[in-house]
C-alpha cells in the first residue's frame, strides 16, 4: 500500500507551504504539486486554495485531512499488529515540545527509545509549550511535552516527567529592584514593576491569579511566546519575568538574571507527556510512553 500521497498531503496541510513541505518530505516541488493534483483529480474536488501569497485548506480538504489521518493511523496499527516481534515496530511518530524540553528531557528518553526501536522515525517540532495540549487535541501531534494544566481536558492522557518551580526573575544588575521585591509581596512594591509575561498558558494563568490576589493590575511591558524569549528580555533589563526554573537552568543567559525570593511563591510546574487517551495503546505511542516509569 502506497501511503506516500497521504503523508505528503498531511504535511502540506500542516505547513500550508509547498516549498517547506518539499524540503521536509525530500521530494521536488513538481512531484509534490503533481501528487496533490492527482489526489484532487481522483476526488473531483480541490483540496487547497492557492494564490501567489498563501495556501489554505478547502472545506473538502479539511474533511480529507481527517480521513487521511485516520487511514494512516489504522494502516500503521494493522502493520504493527501483524508484527510478532515488538522490536520490529516501525513507522512515524510526531513529537512537540519547547526548545528547553528538547535538551532537558529528550536526551535520556530518546537514548533508550532509539536503541529499542531503531525503525521508528521521529518528527520533532519545537515551539511555545503553551500550545502542547492544544496540538494534541487537534490531532497535529502524536505526543507532546508540556506543563500539566490545573484542569486536564477530557480525553487527554498525561504522564509526569519532572517538577520545576515557577520563578520570578530580574536582570542580574538590578540589585535595588530585587531588594524591593524580595520577601512578602506588597501592592505598593509591585504596582509599577514592568512585567514580561507569556501570551498564554499555565504560567500566565498563575501569575494573573497571583496579581489578582495581591490586588494589583500588573504593568505589562511585553507579552511573548516562549520562555526563552522572556529570559532574553529580562537579561536586557526590560522588566521582571516568570519562567520555570528548568528553563533558567538551561539558558545561556542565566548568569545575566537573578531569581527573586518572592512570597507567596507560585505553584510549581509538573512537566510530562501528553497524548490522546483513545490513542495511548497504539503500538508506537505505547512504545514511547513506556520509556517513563509509572
Automatic annotation (TrEMBL):
<dbReference type="InterPro" id="IPR005119">
    <property type="entry name" value="LysR_subst-bd"/>
</dbReference>
<comment type="similarity">
    <text>Belongs to the LysR transcriptional regulatory family.</text>
</comment>
<dbReference type="Pfam" id="PF03466">
    <property type="entry name" value="LysR_substrate"/>
</dbReference>
<dbReference type="GO" id="GO:0003677">
    <property type="term" value="F:DNA binding"/>
</dbReference>
<keyword id="KW-0804">Transcription</keyword>
<feature type="domain" description="HTH lysR-type">
    <location>
        <begin position="1"/>
        <end position="58"/>
    </location>
</feature>
<dbReference type="InterPro" id="IPR000847">
    <property type="entry name" value="LysR_HTH_N"/>
</dbReference>
<keyword id="KW-0238">DNA-binding</keyword>
<dbReference type="Pfam" id="PF00126">
    <property type="entry name" value="HTH_1"/>
</dbReference>
<dbReference type="InterPro" id="IPR036390">
    <property type="entry name" value="WH_DNA-bd_sf"/>
</dbReference>
<protein>
    <submittedName>
        <fullName>DNA-binding transcriptional regulator IlvY</fullName>
    </submittedName>
</protein>
<dbReference type="InterPro" id="IPR037404">
    <property type="entry name" value="IlvY_PBP2"/>
</dbReference>
<dbReference type="InterPro" id="IPR036388">
    <property type="entry name" value="WH-like_DNA-bd_sf"/>
</dbReference>
<keyword id="KW-0805">Transcription regulation</keyword>
Amino acid at each position: 500500500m502506497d501511503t506516500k500521497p497521504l503523508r505528503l498531503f498531511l504535511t502540506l496541510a500542516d505547513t500550508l507551504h509547498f516549498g517547506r513541505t518539499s524540503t521536509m518530505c525530500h521530494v521536488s516541488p513538481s512531484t509534490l504539486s503533481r501528487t496533490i493534483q492527482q489526489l484532487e483529480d481522483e476526488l473531483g474536488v480541490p483540496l487547497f486554495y492557492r494564490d501567489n501569497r498563501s495556501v489554505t485548506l478547502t472545506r473538502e480538504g479539511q474533511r480529507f485531512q481527517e480521513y487521511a489521518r485516520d487511514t494512516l493511523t489504522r494502516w500503521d496499527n494493522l502493520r504493527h499488529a501483524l508484527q510478532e516481534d515488538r522490536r520490529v515496530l516501525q513507522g512515524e511518530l510526531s513529537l512537540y515540545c519547547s526548545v528547553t524540553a528538547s535538551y532537558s528531557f529528550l536526551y535520556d528518553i530518546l537514548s533508550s527509545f532509539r536503541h529499542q526501536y531503531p525503525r521508528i522515525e521521529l518528527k520533532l517540532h519545537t515551539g511555545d509549550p503553551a500550545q502542547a495540549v492544544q496540538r494534541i487535541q487537534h490531532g497535529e501531534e502524536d505526543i507532546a511535552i508540556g506543563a500539566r494544566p490545573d484542569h486536564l481536558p477530557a480525553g487527554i492522557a498525561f504522564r509526569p516527567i519532572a517538577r520545576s518551580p515557577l520563578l520570578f526573575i530580574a536582570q542580574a544588575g538590578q540589585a535595588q529592584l530585587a531588594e524591593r521585591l524580595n520577601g512578602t509581596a506588597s501592592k505598593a512594591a509591585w504596582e509599577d514593576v514592568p512585567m514580561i509575561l507569556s501570551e498564554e498558558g499555565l504560567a500566565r494563568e498563575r501569575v494573573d491569579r497571583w496579581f489578582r490576589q495581591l490586588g494589583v493590575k500588573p504593568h505589562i511591558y511585553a507579552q511573548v511566546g516562549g520562555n526563552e524569549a522572556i529570559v532574553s528580555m529580562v537579561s536586557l533589563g526590560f522588566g521582571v519575568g516568570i519562567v520555570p526554573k528548568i528553563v533558567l537552568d538551561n539558558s545561556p543567559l542565566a548568569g545575566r538574571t537573578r531569581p527573586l525570593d518572592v512570597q507567596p511563591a507560585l505553584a510549581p510546574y509538573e512537566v510530562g507527556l501528553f497524548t490522546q487517551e483513545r490513542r495511548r495503546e497504539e503500538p508506537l505511542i505505547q512504545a514511547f510512553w513506556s520509556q517513563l516509569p509509572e
